[in-house]
Structure formats: C-alpha cells, structure tokens
Amino acid sequence: MKTDHYDVVIAGSGIAGSLIAKTLTRAGKKVLLLEAGLQAGVALDSDGAYNNYMSYLDRFYNAAAKVPNSPYPILKDAPTSNVLDVVKLTPGGPPPPGYLVQMGPLPFASDAVRGPGGTMLHWLGTTLRMLPNDFKMKTVYNQAVDWPITADDLRPYYEMAELEIGVSGEVSEQTYPDTPAPKAYFGKDYVFPMHKIPQSYLDTEIAKGVQNMTVKLNKRQYKINCISTPQGRNSTPNAKYPYRDVIWNKAEKKLKLTGLLGEKYDYNPVPSIWDAYTGQRCEGNASCVPICPVQAKYNPLKTLKRSNFDHLTIITQAVASTINIDEKTKEVTGIVYKRYNNPDSPEYTTGVAAGKIYVLAANAIENAKILLASGAANSSDQVGRNLMDHMVMLTWGLTKEKIYPYRGPGSTTNIATFRDGPFRSEHAAWISPFDNWGWSWPVFSPGSDVSDGLAMGLFGKQLRDYLNERLTRQFLLHFECEQSPDPDNRVTIDHQYLDPLGNYKPIIHYYATDYMLKSMEAAKTVSDQIFAANGIEDHTVYNPVTDAGYVTYKGQGYTYRGAGHIVGTHRMGFNKHDSVVNHEQRTWDHPNLFLAGCGNMPTLGTSNPSLTMTALTFKAAEAILKQLEK
Amino acid sequence: MAGKHTRDDGTIRTLAELKSALQNAIELEHSTIPTYLCALYSIQDGTNQKAVETIRSIVVEEMLHMILACNILNAIGGEPAINKPGFVPTYPGHLPDSDNSFVINLAKFSRESVDVFLKIEKPATTSEPPKAKGYQTIGQFYQAVRIGLEYVNDNTPGGIFTKDKKQRAKQITAEHYYGSGGQIIPVYTIDDAREAIAEIVGQGEGIDDTIEDSDQQMFGQGIEYAHYFRFNELHEERLYKDTDTPKSGPTGDRIVVEWDAVYNMKPNPKMDDFKAYPELLEKVRDFNRTYTLLLDNIHNACNGQPDLLMKGVAMMYQLKYKAIALMNIPVPGTRYMAGPSFEFEK
Amino acid sequence: MANNRADLFLEISALLTGFNKAELQGTGMVATYYNTVANIPQDPNYSDQELAANEANVGFFFEEVNSILKENKKDESKLQQAIAGRLMPLSAYNGLAQSIITLWYTGSWGANVVNAQAYIQGLMWDTAEAHPPGAKQPGFGSWSFPPL
Ligand SMILES: Cc1cc2nc3c(=O)[nH]c(=O)nc-3n(C[C@H](O)[C@H](O)[C@H](O)COP(=O)(O)OP(=O)(O)OC[C@H]3O[C@@H](n4cnc5c(N)ncnc54)[C@H](O)[C@@H]3O)c2cc1C
Ligand code: SF4
User: Which residues contact C38 (CB under 8 A, 6 or more apart)?
Assistant: First the structure.
C-alpha cells in the first residue's frame, strides 16, 4: 500500500513531530503524520480527549510502581524503554529483559513514551535555555565539540519555543555563571509569557541558609546562587508579554513571532485539550511526572490540536521501520511503516508513506535505529553514537524544621552556580534542582517510611507521629551532570534482537568516563558542605548491590540515575564528516530528509534539553518551508 | 445583615441604597453556593458525570458573580462585608431580601433539590418590574441594581465611580481570578459595571427568549446554556439541542441521571446535631473553621489584598475534601450521612 | 462494644493507625478494606486449602481483637501493650495487623493497589500534611505557603 503524495511526511507526534505538523499545516502544506501509538491517544475532541486521558490517570492510580510510564498503555508492537527494566548489569552476562538491549557496562537509565504526544506526556516541564559557553565547549574548555551555531543565533527560536510551550518564569531572576546579565542575555524587554510558578515553601526555607553561602571545590570558592526555574506549566499571565503566535512569512521566508495587536486581554494560558477552564493554572497535583491530571503542564497534544486539520492526515498504530532511498539522487522516496490493529498481536500490514520531504521525529534512540536499519544518513559514521543523558546523582537528608515536601510541581528552584566555570576542562558541569517531592525518587517514600515505621514496631499514634515528623522534613537535591559526547556510548542494531513486528530493538552501549565520575565526586563535596552548613542530616545511601547505576571513583561509591534526556545520537555539526545533520537539521546525505529531536544536539549543557530542541525544531520547520517554496 | 437601606418599593435612589443593594447582591450570590456545593459533593465519585459538570460549572459562575458584585461595590467606594456571622445564611432559608416564595436548603443532590435550583435560576419575565427588595427572580433584582447605578451616577456630580488610586487597586482582575466560567471584569466605570451585571444576569438567566448564556456573545466562548436551562436538562433528564427554545424545553438525547449514586446526606445539618459524637463533631467544626477562614480570606482579598485569593483557592479545595469526608461518615442511629453545615465558626 | 467483625475491624483499625474512627470513615474505604482483609469476594487465584487457611487466620485474628478490646476496656496503656504484644509481631496471625496498617496508610494489599480510591485515600499523604500525587489537588500556589 502506498499513500497519497504529501508535501511532508513526519514520523512521531512528540513535540518535534507535532510542532512541525502544526507549523507546516498552518502554512498551507499537506502533511502526513505517522504515529506508533494507539488511535485513542490522538483524540482531540472534548469527549474523546477527556476519556482517553482519564484512562491514563486511572491506570496511574492503580499502578503499584508509579514510574514515569505507569499511566500509558504498554504496547507489545511498539514497545518502549521503562525505568523498571533498568537493573544492575553483570559483566559478560546476557542483557536483562526489556526493550533496550543493555550491553553495558553500565545501564542507560532513561525511558520514553511511545504514544501520541510522546515523552512530554510525562516530562517534568523544566525549560531552561542553554548558556553561551555550552555552544563552544571545544573552543573554551577543550572538551567535546562546538555547535555550528551560537546562543545568539538561537535566540529568536528560543523565543518561539517559549511561546509554544508556554513558559512561566521571571527573566530578571535568571542569573547564570559566566553569562551576560539577564537583560543582555534575553534581550532588554524580554519577558516570559507567564510570571514564575510560585517557588515552594521548601525552596524558600532551604534558600534562607543556602543562598550566598560559600562552598569550596578544588581549592576555589563559589558563592551559591539559588534561582527560580522557568517551566512549561501555567501560571499568572505576564501583562508585558507581547506575542501570540508564530507564523510563516512567505515574503521574507522566515518564521515570525506575531504580537497581540491591541487585544483586550493578556496572554491566555493554554488550557487542557478537553475544556477551556481546566488547567489554566498549575493546581499543584504534584504528579507532573508521570501525568498532569489537569494538563496545566504543557504537552505536545496542545500543539497538535492547533494544527490546520484541513491539511493534516494522521495515521496511528503505524510504526516507521525504514526509509527508502533512491540510490542515484540520494533522495528519500518513502517511509516504510508497519501498521497493527491489535497492539498485542504480531500481525501487521506494511505501508509506504510518500512525500516531498521527510522528517524523522521519533525520539533520539528511535531515529538512530531507523537510520541504521535503512543504512541512511551515515556517511560520517556518527549515527547512533554520542548517546548522552544527564547523569543524575541524588543526595537526601532530613531538615531540622518542617519544610513540607510532596507539594507542588517537581521543582521550582535550582542552584545555577555550577552550570559553567573553568572546572569544565576537568569535570562535567551540573545544575542542582531542589526537589519538592521528598525522598520518593531514591527510596520510594512515603511507602518505604511506613515500612520503616512498622519495622520499628510502631503503630497507632506513635506511628502517625513518626511518619509526620519524617515526611515533613525530607529534602532531596539533584546533581544533573552534563554527560559529554563519547563515540562509544552508542545505539546499534542486530538481527538477533527484534520486537514482535520484526523491527529492531535498540542495543545500547553505555559507560561513564572519568570526566563524569569526577563531577560526581565534586558534586558530593558540594552537597556535603550544603548539608553540614544547614543542619541537614544526611541520609544518602549509594548501594553497590541494589543500585543499577552504582559506580566507583577513587574508592568512593556513587549512584547515577537517568534524567530522561536522551540526546546526541544523530548530531548536528559543521560538515558531512563530523556529523549527521547541518544547522538546519537537514541530513548531509539526503537533501529531503530532516531529523528532529534531541538526537541533533552535539552537546547537552546543563539545561534540560527540550526547550533547546524545540527551538531547533522551529529552525527545521523554517528550513522545510523554505525548501518547499523554492 | 441584609441591607437596611432598601426602599419598600424596591427602587434605588441614593448611593447608600446602592451600596446596600450591592452588599445584598454579594450575599445573594453567596447564599446559593453552599446549597449547590452540598448537592455537588453528595454525588459519588465517578458517577453522574453530566450532573457533576452542570453543578460545578454553575457554582464557579456563582463565585465569579460574587466577586463581580464585590468589584462593583468597590468601584463606587463601598466596602464588601463578608466575614461577619450574619453574612452566612441559615438553612433552611430564603434568598436574602427576596419575596420568600421558596426555601433553599443544604441537601443532597435529588429531584427535589434540582426543583429548588430551577426556582433560584428562574429567568425574569418582562411583566415583573425591577425590584431590589421583595423580588421574585434574581434578574428582577439586578435590573433594579443596574437602573439604580445609572440613576445615582447620573445624579451625582462627577459620578460615583471612584478615582482614588488605592480604592481602584481593590479590583479583582484576571491576574487573581481564573478558571471559572466567564471573565472577571474589573470595574472602573459605569460601562464596566453594566458589563459586569450583564455577565451575571446573562450567565444566570441567558439572553432573552433563548436558552444560551451571554458568554458567546460577550467573549466568543463556545455556546453554553444559561443556568436555568442547564438545571432543566437534569430535571428533564434530556439534553437541549441548539435549536431548542425556552418554550420547547429540551428535545435532544436522553441522559441518565443516577439519582441513587448519591450520599444520603442529612438535610440542613447543624453542629448541634452532632454533640453526642465528639469525633464527628470535631470534623464538622473543622469544616466550618475552614469555611470561616475562607470568608475572612475573601473579605480581605476584596478589601485591598487581591493577592490573597491564591490562598482562598487552596481553602476552597480543602473545603471540598472535608465535605466529601463528612458525607462518608454515618450519623449513628440514623440512615443519614453527616455533611457540611456551613456555620460561622471562629 | 463492637459486636460484629466489621465493627471490630473499624475499632482495631483506629487503634492500629492512630486515626480515629470518624477520620477512617471519612475516607470512604472502611467497607472495601474490611472486604479486602476478609477476602470477600474470594480471590480466585487461591486454592481451596489456602482460602480455608486464610479464613481461619482471619477468624482467629478477630477473636483475638475482640478479647483484647474486652479485657482492656478501662486501661489505655494495657490496651496498647496488648496490641503491641499480641497483634503487632509479624509472627502473629501472619502479620495481619501490619498488613492492615499498610493497607490504610498506602492503599496497597500485598503488591497490589486495591483500587484507585485506595491510592487516593492513603493515610500517609494526610500524615505528610500533603495529598496523593495526581489527586486532591490543593490549588495554584498552595505549595508556596505551609499547609493550611
Ligand atoms: C521522566 C522524564 C522527565 C523529563 N523532564 C524534562 C524536563 O523537565 N525538561 C526537558 O526539557 N525535558 C525533559 N524530558 C525530556 C523530554 O521528554 C524529551 O526531550 C522530549 O519528549 C523529546 O521529544 P521528541 O518529540 O523528540 O520525542 P518523544 O517525545 O519521545 O516523541 C516521539 C514520538 O514518536 C513516536 N514514535 C516512536 N517511534 C516511532 C516509530 N518508529 N514510528 C512512528 N512513531 C514513532 C512516539 O510514539 C512519540 O509520539 C524528560 C523526559 C523524561 C523521561
Ligand atoms: S503540579 Fe500538578 S497541576 Fe501542576 S503541572 Fe504538576 S501535575 Fe500539573
């Protein structure tokens, strides 16, 4: 079966795919969107969207382990990574079960959602920009690689991304190390669409002792800087915000932000996809990962919903497998997909989607896998390589006073101090978000605290008091260390490892370089100083037997966890020898094949990647429109 | 509490009368809220989706109306009074200053309570003169307020709308208020005040001789039916079609109203009823304490500290969870469940 | 004095959890949890033998509860001692008392969440002065001040 001829065929309806679909259809282009997940998930009418989303919520309530993927249907025919499958690897042993074939020596610890809307259904929502030096790591610190573009080049696209996602934050508070002051870095009058999400009580209590305290690291002194975190969840509109939309300007061949043009009311927070009154503000459900019940948090279905449906065709339950390439012209001629009726049955029909231009937007690991399976875009031998994630080291303790965690969005404040600095030539930089959800991540609190109390023989009033004292004082700090690109951290494929539809399962090779381990050592010394100075009783335990991500450095043990930031597998670069795509996200090898998603990022920086990726995706959409209108 | 300054003929001629009538408006809007909330919270989780959506959407509009009335009162230099014992109606009771033709209750969702809701939201007919006192319908009342506003404004040199900066800063705006059906309208002029009243009346009673409310005309929102007609759908267990009229009644699809999937809440409960059960009494009292704190909060928010409303929203959520907990507790020796009593409790 | 098992269950649940009876009733979970503990309806995954053993265990447990409550009506500290000594050890009645506490606090019975409401009504969230993630939303900005 061959489809009609479209202007553009896209695989994947995460933010990358949905944003391109929306931008192009609104510019009048005919788009076909292939999506691996279930038909029900793409319902955008009020009843359909509500019922489907409530089924996610119900699945979450009933899940024994409330991991990021717990609300979303498990599809045998379109399987995905799951943190429940992340286990300690035995050297030389067979890879453990799970979608990712983990060859080690360390497990890759992040997951993704396969379903309409993609992984941002369960993202946290942090939307920091990268810092200027992040784009030139080679030049400044002789590490990793430079980007072919600078922070300044990306600025207009960052602004588009901040409108698309609906960022809440205070520009004036965004003071970063080695970075021009906010007015210079963001532009003199720039504000985010909405004011900051109120910082948690916990944040303000902790910051009282931490803000401006001095810590020592490798003989240097640093003054700690705690700032509010910009995020993609709805807050109070900022009356000074001037934009409403991004539109294609045919004459100038550019995407442009357009203004509110004297409208009576301010920026309107984008509500849930099922009704206009739900989700206008973050309601503090404190479950952003895995699911925001009111959709106050951005998810890509909000973007998809604003497409022009006269020009958009969506085929769901369609798993893109390979791409067809004309040997002579190197042009892509179609995306081959396998369409299943029942996600539990191995039966499928094959289709070929044809268009002028093709976009793979199926997430970094999937994109690499499809390219490898097709022998495509790989003249640089970089496809699948440089797989990165933030390696997250957690530290946790009990505060003296009650700080009342388990309330509000996952994180509303971060320590920006170690996001940049000369130390980057020695070890990785990191960002330290304060976590609002107690010790739930490392030790599955509060359930584990109930068990602890019972093990101490407590019951009745004593148990209740014990738990109250403990749960109201749990503090958790993250150190999200910037993994640097390494060609040996990679995705490969092998006929031995196939999923039920006969598509490849990704084989993962992953380890931590000394550059990373050293940053964990450094981060732990910073944590120790913060805890000691603030009377926080340290309860951190890194368990060599049970922690999947347990590593040692200079005789000390540390545990990393995945951040969900799957990056780097089809990097952007300066030429066809060093990279897979150019700065417009077009593959060097195939003039009508674009890649979208975090796989394009040459380095990670210390910001969560999706805002930057969304900015890059606007760039891709612009380049596609230019190419179509040539 | 209800206004001391209303004339027997229900007209408004002085600023004092106007302020008093607007204070009544606040009390009137508020008085329906506990009634609706009891019905809403008595519906068991996961059932009666249509009824829940109907009552919820109406009650948030009543809250909006209450705030709009505060905005108008503040705009003419008044002081909304919300945290006084007399502000809280006694149930069973009547709409404040109405003609007392029907009784409103704190009661579970039932056919009888929907009957009462229809009476509350009954559209005004043109034959009834505007009246701020002894009114039969809420529309009549607001007509009188609007006419009074215009009259007093026209007959006061310089008008009655405050130009004082501090007083103007008391307006509740979209920055503080969100998520409810309709738009919050800050009031600075007679036009704003007219718009606010049109919003209140339009959402409640709809546009003359149609079943729609005014939001679509005013704000370009999707068609929504006015309160009376939304309740009538539950009453008739049938949906309206867009082509229906007030006369035709609903002629659309049948809906299932699960009248039994409801907690059997004790009608018009009082703390006094629970004296013999200290644990239960404490929970009712705790509810009332939160309710009273909320009234304090709204009072302060509408008297110069609009930012406080953020905390008010948190209190409203707590009230809901506490009310539902009460409806799950049997009242010993009866076939009833406990329920929120909405009493002033410091 | 409680005279049937369901009443005994509420009585002992209050003593085990530290939440009073009205608080427990307010969760709306009493009946569901009683049925869970008493295995009503019977779980089809168990053999007849296992079911019989479980029923006997539950029966003995409630008899013990009944006598503990009767014997210690007047003396609160003796009552606490009796619960600690005769119900709380894991060896007593297959650890049923501890399972009941876990059930109330977390909504889980064994490895499973009893149902969505059980998760939402877990007492541990109330104890933390918070709310279950994804339910009972507390409202915009509520996290920026201490619990109400
Ligand atoms: C727990 C967690 C928290 C996170 N928090 C943050 C955060 O706070 N900030 C931030 O910036 N980032 C965060 N991220 C990362 C963020 O979710 C991803 O960067 C983002 O979702 C990537 O978007 P995407 O569109 O490229 O891919 P995805 O969102 O993964 O979407 C891919 C889409 O493609 C579809 N698909 C997959 N394979 C195929 C195929 N073969 N054929 C057709 N369709 C296919 C999928 O069903 C899906 O719809 C987080 C991630 C996780 C896991
Ligand atoms: S805190 Fe709650 S309402 Fe806010 S974004 Fe997270 S899940 Fe949504």
Answer: C5, C58
Residues of A in contact with B178 (CB under 8 A): 269, 280-281
Report which residue type is found at A162.
Answer: E
Q: Is the C-beta atom of A285 inside 6 A of ligand 2? A: yes
Contact state of C139 with B316 under an 8 Å Cβ cutoff: yes
Neighbours of C99 (CB within 10 A): 18
Cα separation, A100 vs B282, in Å, equals 55
| Ligand 1 binding pocket includes A608 (Cβ within 6 Å) | yes
**Alpha-carbon gap, residue B208 to B189, rounded angstroms:** 25
CA distance B131 to B143: 7
B82 burial via Cβ count (<10 Å: 0-12, 13-18, 19+): buried
Q: What is the ipTM of this complex?
A: 0.97
User: What's domain A2-628's architecture?
Assistant: 3-Layer(bba) Sandwich (3.50)
Q: Are A189 and A239 in contact (CB under 8 A)?
A: no
> Closest residue (by CA) to atom 6 of ligand 2?
A288
Shortest-distance Cα residue to atom 47 of ligand 1: A114
Domains of chain B: 15-267 (1.20.1260.10)
d(CA B336, CA C1): 22
Within 8 A of C129 by CB-CB distance, chain A residues are 404, 468, 471-472
Q: What is the pLDDT of residues A324-342, one digit of tens each?
A: 999 999 999 999 999 999 9
Alpha helices per DSSP H over A337-483: 364-374, 440-443, 447-455, 460-471
Residue A139 identity (one-letter amino acid): T
CA of residue A173 to ligand 1 center, whole Å: 28
User: Which tokens sit at C20?
Assistant: 């009073």
3-class SS at B295? Answer: helix
Which structure tokens are listed for A433? 């978000």
Side-chain half-sphere CA neighbours of B210 within 13 A: 15
Mean pLDDT by 10 residues, chain B (346 residues): 57 93 94 96 93 91 93 97 91 89 96 95 77 83 93 95 95 82 87 93 69 56 73 93 84 93 97 97 98 96 93 94 98 96 93
Residue of chain C minimizing CA distance to B308? C141
How many whole angstroms separate alpha carbon C47 and alpha carbon A410?
45
Contact yes or no for A419/A177 (Cβ under 8 A)? yes
Can you tell me the distance from the alpha carbon of A153 to that of A300, in angstroms, rounded to the nearest whole number?
25
- The bound ligand whose nearest atom lies closest to the alpha carbon of A436 is 2
CA-nearest residue of chain C to A280? C140
Kindly determine whether residue C147 and residue A451, on different chains, have CB atoms separated by under 8 Å.
no
For B284, name the nearest residue in chain C, comparing CA atoms only.
Answer: C22
List the structure tokens of A9.
């065929």
CA distance B252 to B225: 14
Residues of B in contact with C142 (CB under 8 A): 310-311, 313-314, 317
Segments making up each domain of chain A, as ranges: 2-628
Q: Do A467 and C130 touch (CB under 8 A)?
A: no
Ligand 2 centroid – CA A114 distance (Å): 21
The DSSP symbol for B257 reads -
Both tokens of residue A108? 């890759």
B324 to chain C: which residues are within 8 Å by CB?
A: 28
Going by C-alpha positions, the residue among A371, A307, A364, A310 that lies closest to residue A335 is A371
Chain A partners (3+ C-beta pairs within 8 A): B, C
Is residue A287 in contact with ligand 2, taking CB distance under 6 Å? yes
**Any idea where the domains of chain C sit in the sequence?**
5-122
